[in-house]
């Protein structure tokens, strides 16, 4: 141990510490494509402001000129093409509907003015009319309520609902000033033209300037996915090599204190090899979730290219088949931690270990074994890495290295020899041979492991079916220290099974890449097809999964939030007060009752909050004494900030509120710099608008969790500068014709800042009132959803495993077969769970920024639950992956010789009698989900299901089934994975139950409310206790 400590100490000294500037630049993650997208994002407002300098344009838009620039920003031209077209279509529809409803609102308000004006007096004589203001206020409240409810229900409608809210706010606050219908019609027409012009500019920039397709985005994600897999393989290679010399049961390193004395130790740090494995595993699982969300849009695009939608889908399936065992391989670190817990190896010094000799002996055993496996592991990992490189070359995602571009001369051929490299035509055959060689080497490895335990084997031990021919007739249970050795054997088989499975999955992807070689494929027009187009239309109006990293939904979600649609079963409850309707009248009654359910839904509650927040500001503009002041001080922008900043799941995070205020202050300062640096010259100002907006769009591009803060900052800067350019162009007289005085920019800036901050402050108040939507409660609700998805996923996996054991899974190519339906449901729920867990981990990091009231938030328990759920999902997925062995064609095919797979047939027969999975786990996970979501305590005496103990169950049926002579059988390694997975799931279920009990509590029936003395003034519990004590004394 001392030597390892010194090695880690020396390694730490050799590492070069990067400079502060280098760290900052690396953290920015700024590259050329990002810089180009930032420049592209700044073009629409720049074009709008430049266009307004033409006299004809200025005369057309008049005092709404700067609004065109703001709407062009909200067009969000940097979205990929398919997402942009879908969002823009909804934007245009939303704006047109908003204009129509606004015109109806203004018409009704003008009629209200006419009906309440005294006869004989012209309407001009009455500037203010209370009836007209009341009508506008009612319309405003109702529309904001409805549109905000839709925003909460359908996150993909984020930008359309924001645009609708802006139009409604502007129309409703200016509506009380209109005295005739033509005035209202003219205003709505100019407002509609301004909105459509801004959206048109954004459309032109999106489609014609540096166009970005969803296919390109998905292609880059696939490249990143494969790169992350290669990085994970490299990290595992380094980790395996570290196991040759280091203590695998301790995941941390100790760093000496300032006096270089071992007694003074700083906080332990995670070993770099372990950290790299965990980081890269999280990277490709996150990319898997993002690719799952972006893939449908890539398949819907009309393009001129080589990859068809079916090709993208096939690549995703192949990557998923690689990811599953890779996640299991990444769990090796977790397995060693579990062994350390079982053996009570504390993550500290040797003197803290209960049995240092056992610890040292186990570490030495693993060190020797990993040294023996160094060659095979390095060869197969290198082969898999080259396989992924070959895939990138074939798909045109990476270029062939110059050293590989050999000509046709004899010298090159001789120099190349028999070495086959990625990109060569024979590479797939070479990879298959190396994968088979690794699999065949399993016998050598297992023979070495047995001999290291002192067991001498004959040469034909694994191939002689006659058990009596071997005098030892060794069986696993006869080895001394059976449990510890059995555990090591299963882990070795676990590693080898997963490495071989990964190599076969990569081989399948390599063969597919050879079939779809982009160098030989011709380009053609590719369309979505009628069926896919219909699905696109229907999905637009259905609940969808979304995250804060999605360009379409980011503005509708709060910071660090993810929305996953759990399905109808998650929220739908059976009504204990009503039976199912049986006739038309009862169905009509249910329809009426649905109204109350709508009003009581969380989405409707959010819409009501938004409407109240909006009216808190708008009421100033509807009262006689403050209406003019409202118009002059431009408080309509405070209302617009409410529409921008209020999100259904944002919570009351103080950090988010402060961040938006800081962003607004920076935007005001940027507006002053934009105006004064070029000497107030119009051309220079427009150029600097482009520069500063480009810089501002770094946040939406690289920090999507701060999207709202970034948009508010950019909009504020453009609003200030755009208004000053408008006043300069049309003149002060026309600019003030709408009742707003024209201020100099150094005065206008603080006014705009005050209105924006005021709007966000009101939004914050209505986030707290009448009851707070805290980050804590939002995290708890999401955690309940994650547990529900875990129960759903485990239930599907239970049916999958049982179907494979029974052999009635059917043909997976037949969409109507049970196996195909289970696979579709399994993949869908797994992708949802990956997205949910990713959002939970991100969300949990920001909870500590919330203003604390009362006791501390149990962050440790929540993080522990997230970790347990992640492990349960990973091991459940691995359980299903290993069960594929039961249906492998080489074992259960029609041409298979039964005598060669007799052990496997016996094994499958016996294991079908032992429940690998259990419905009890599904029930428990569902119960825990309900308890966490509702906050209700758990039932009393609730216990976790017993561990499966597959080995004991199988040996009870057939003692020879797990004999050591069978460990090279194809299904034995799969059994080891099943044994480890089921054991780990049971351990995590037990820990999960105990942690949830700490959070929500448990019903306690230890005291029964029973009156033992009639007419006694004491309580029942006191009587019970006293009576019990008296009886004990009497005895």
UniProtKB/TrEMBL annotation:
Where would I find the Putative ER transporter 6TM N-terminal domain in this sequence? Answer: 23-118, 125-391
Keywords associated with the record: Membrane, Transmembrane, Transmembrane helix
InterPro entries xref list: ArAE_2_N (IPR018823), BRE4-related_DUF2421 (IPR018820), Memb_transporter_dom (IPR049453)
Q: Where is the composition biased (Low complexity)?
A: 1016-1027
**What residue ranges are annotated as transmembrane?**
60-79, 91-110, 130-150, 157-175, 187-210, 489-510, 606-623, 635-651, 657-676, 683-700, 706-725, 745-769
Q: Where is the DUF2421 domain?
A: 770-1002
Q: Name one Pfam family in it.
A: ArAE_2_N
The record ties this protein, via PANTHER family, to:
ARAE_2_N DOMAIN-CONTAINING PROTEIN-RELATED (PTHR37994), ER TRANSPORTER 6TM N-TERMINAL DOMAIN-CONTAINING PROTEIN-RELATED (PTHR37994:SF4)
The protein's name is ER transporter 6TM N-terminal domain-containing protein
Q: What is the species listed in this Swiss-Prot or TrEMBL entry?
A: Lentithecium fluviatile CBS 122367
Task: Tell me the lineage of the source organism.
Answer: Eukaryota, Fungi, Dikarya, Ascomycota, Pezizomycotina
């Amino acid at each position: 141990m001392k030597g390892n400590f010194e090695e880690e100490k020396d390694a730490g000294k050799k590492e070069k510490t990067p400079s502060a500037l280098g760290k900052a630049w690396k953290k920015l993650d700024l590259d050329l494509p990002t810089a180009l997208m930032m420049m592209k994002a700044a073009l629409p407002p720049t074009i709008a402001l430049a266009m307004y300098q033409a006299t004809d344009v200025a005369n057309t838009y008049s005092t709404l000129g700067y609004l065109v620039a703001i709407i062009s920003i909200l067009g969000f031209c940097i979205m990929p093409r398919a997402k942009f077209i879908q969002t823009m279509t909804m934007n245009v529809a939303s704006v047109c509907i908003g204009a129509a409803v606004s015109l109806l609102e203004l018409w009704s308000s003008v009629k209200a003015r006419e009906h309440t004006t005294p006869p004989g007096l012209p309407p001009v004589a009455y500037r203010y009319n209370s009836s007209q203001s009341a009508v506008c206020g009612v319309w405003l409240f109702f529309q904001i309520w409805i549109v905000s409810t839709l925003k909460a229900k359908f996150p993909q409608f984020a930008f359309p609902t924001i645009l609708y809210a802006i139009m409604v706010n502007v129309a409703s606050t200016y509506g009380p000033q209109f005295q005739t219908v033509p005035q209202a019609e003219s205003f709505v027409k100019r407002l509609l033209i301004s909105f459509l012009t801004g959206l048109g500019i954004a459309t032109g920039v999106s489609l014609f300037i540096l166009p970005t397709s969803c296919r390109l985005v998905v292609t880059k994600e696939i490249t990143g996915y494969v790169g992350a897999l290669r990085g994970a393989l490299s990290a595992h290679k380094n980790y395996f090599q570290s196991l040759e010399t280091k203590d695998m049961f301790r995941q941390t390193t100790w760093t000496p204190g300032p006096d270089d004395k071992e007694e003074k130790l700083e906080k332990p740090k995670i070993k770099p090899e372990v950290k790299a494995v965990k980081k890269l595993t999280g990277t490709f699982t996150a990319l898997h979730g993002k690719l799952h969300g972006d893939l449908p849009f890539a398949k819907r695009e009309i393009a001129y290219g080589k990859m068809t939608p079916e090709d993208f889908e096939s690549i995703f399936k192949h990557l998923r088949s690689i990811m599953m065992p890779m996640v299991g391989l990444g769990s090796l670190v977790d397995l060693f931690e579990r062994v350390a817990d079982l053996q009570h190896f504390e993550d500290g010094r040797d003197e803290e270990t209960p049995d240092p000799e056992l610890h040292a002996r186990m570490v030495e055993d693993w060190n020797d074994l990993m040294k023996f496996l160094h060659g095979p592991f390095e060869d197969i990992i290198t082969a898999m890495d080259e396989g992924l490189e070959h895939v990138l070359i074939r798909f045109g995602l990476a270029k062939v290295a110059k050293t590989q571009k050999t000509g046709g001369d004899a010298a090159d051929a001789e120099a190349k020899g028999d070495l086959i490299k990625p990109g060569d035509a024979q590479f797939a055959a070479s990879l298959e041979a190396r994968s088979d060689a690794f699999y065949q080497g399993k016998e050598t490895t297992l023979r070495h492991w047995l001999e290291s335990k002192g067991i001498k084997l004959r040469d034909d031990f694994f191939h002689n079916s006659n058990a009596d021919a071997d005098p030892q007739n060794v069986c696993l249970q006869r080895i001394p220290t059976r449990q510890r050795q059995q555990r090591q054997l299963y882990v070795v088989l676990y590693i080898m099974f997963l490495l071989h499975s990964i190599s076969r999955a990569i081989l399948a992807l390599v063969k597919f890449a050879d079939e779809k070689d982009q160098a030989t494929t011709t380009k053609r027009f590719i369309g979505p097809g009628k069926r896919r187009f219909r699905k696109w239309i229907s999905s637009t109006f259905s609940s969808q999964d979304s995250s804060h990293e999605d360009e379409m939904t980011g503005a509708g979600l709060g910071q660090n939030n993810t929305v996953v649609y759990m399905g109808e079963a998650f929220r739908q409850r059976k009504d204990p007060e009503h039976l199912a309707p049986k006739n038309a009248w009862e169905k009509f009654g249910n329809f009426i009752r649905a109204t109350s359910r709508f009003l009581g839904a969380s989405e409707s509650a959010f819409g009501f909050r938004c409407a109240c927040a909006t009216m808190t500001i708008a009421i100033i503009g509807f009262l006689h004494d403050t209406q003019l002041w409202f118009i002059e001080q431009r408080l309509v922008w405070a209302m617009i900030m409410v529409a921008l900043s209020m999100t259904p799941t944002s919570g009351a995070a103080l950090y988010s509120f402060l961040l938006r205020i800081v962003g607004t202050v920076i935007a005001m300062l940027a507006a002053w710099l934009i105006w004064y640096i070029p000497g107030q010259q119009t051309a220079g100002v427009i150029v600097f608008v482009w520069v500063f907006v480009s810089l501002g769009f770094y946040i939406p591009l690289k920090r999507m969790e701060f999207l709202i803060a970034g948009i508010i900052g950019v909009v504020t800067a453009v609003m200030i500068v755009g208004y000053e350019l408008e006043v300069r162009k049309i003149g002060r007289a026309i600019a003030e014709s709408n009742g707003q005085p024209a201020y100099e920019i150094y005065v206008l800036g603080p006014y705009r800042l005050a209105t924006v901050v005021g709007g966000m402050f009101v939004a914050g108040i209505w986030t707290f009132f009448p009851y707070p939507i805290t980050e804590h409660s939002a995290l708890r609700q999401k955690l309940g959803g994650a547990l529900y998805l875990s129960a759903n996923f485990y239930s599907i996996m239970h049916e999958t495993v049982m179907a494979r054991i029974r052999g009635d899974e059917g043909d997976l190519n037949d969409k109507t077969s049970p196996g195909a339906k289970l696979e579709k449901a399994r993949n869908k729920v797994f992708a949802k769970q990956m997205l949910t867990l990713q959002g939970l981990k991100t969300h949990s990091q920001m909870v500590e920024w919330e203003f604390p009231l009362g006791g501390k938030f149990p962050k440790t328990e929540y993080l522990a639950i997230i970790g347990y759920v992640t492990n349960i999902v990973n091991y459940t997925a691995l359980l299903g992956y290993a069960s594929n062995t039961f249906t492998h064609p080489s074992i259960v095919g029609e041409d298979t010789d039964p005598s060669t797979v007799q052990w496997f047939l016996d094994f499958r027969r016996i294991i079908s009698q032992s429940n690998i999975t259990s419905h009890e786990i599904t029930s428990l996970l569902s119960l825990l989900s309900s308890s966490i979501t509702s906050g209700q305590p758990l039932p009393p005496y609730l216990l976790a299901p017993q561990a499966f103990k597959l080995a004991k169950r199988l040996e009870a049926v057939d003692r020879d089934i797990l004999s050591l002579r069978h460990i090279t059988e194809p299904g034995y390694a799969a059994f080891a994975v099943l044994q480890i997975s089921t054991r780990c799931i049971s351990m995590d279920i037990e820990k999960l139950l105990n942690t949830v009990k700490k959070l929500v509590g448990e019903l306690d029936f230890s005291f029964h409310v029973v009156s033992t003395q009639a007419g006694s003034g004491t309580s029942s519990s006191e009587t019970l206790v006293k009576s019990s004590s008296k009886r004990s004394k009497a005895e």
